[in-house]
Amino acid sequence: MIYGTGIDLTEIGRIQKIVDAGLKLPEKVLTPAELVVYNRYGSKRRIEFLAGRFSAKESYSKAFGTGIGAAVGFQDIEILDNEAGKPEITRHPFTGPAWVSISHTDQLVMTQVILERGKM
User: Fold this and answer.
1) What is the CATH number of the domain that holds 77?
2) Is 0.85 surpassed by the pTM of this model?
3) In which domain, by residue range, is 75 found?
C-alpha cells in the first residue's frame, strides 16, 4: 500500500549557480558515500548528479509528508546506484520500502519517490 508519493522538478542551472557561488551545496545535500561518487565525475556530470540527488531528496521529503527540515534532512537520505546503475534509496527514516526515479534533460531534473507501507 502506498504511504506517500513525492515529485520534484529542479533546474540544473540553479544548482550550478549555487555551487559556483561557493555555498557548499554538495556537502550539505550529499552523504559521505554520495560525495565519493560525486567527486568521480567531470564537471557537467557532477552537477547533474548533485541536482538529481537534491531533487530526489526533496521528492522523498514530500512523500514522507514533511518537506526538508527538522523531521527529515538531506543527510538522512542516501541514494546510491546499484550494480546495474539504477538509483536506489539505501538509507532513509521511513520504515517501509522506498522507490526512486531520476530523469533529466540538459536543463531540468525530474524525480519521483514512492513510499510503501507493509511488506514488498
Assistant:
1) 3.90.470.20
2) yes
3) 2-116
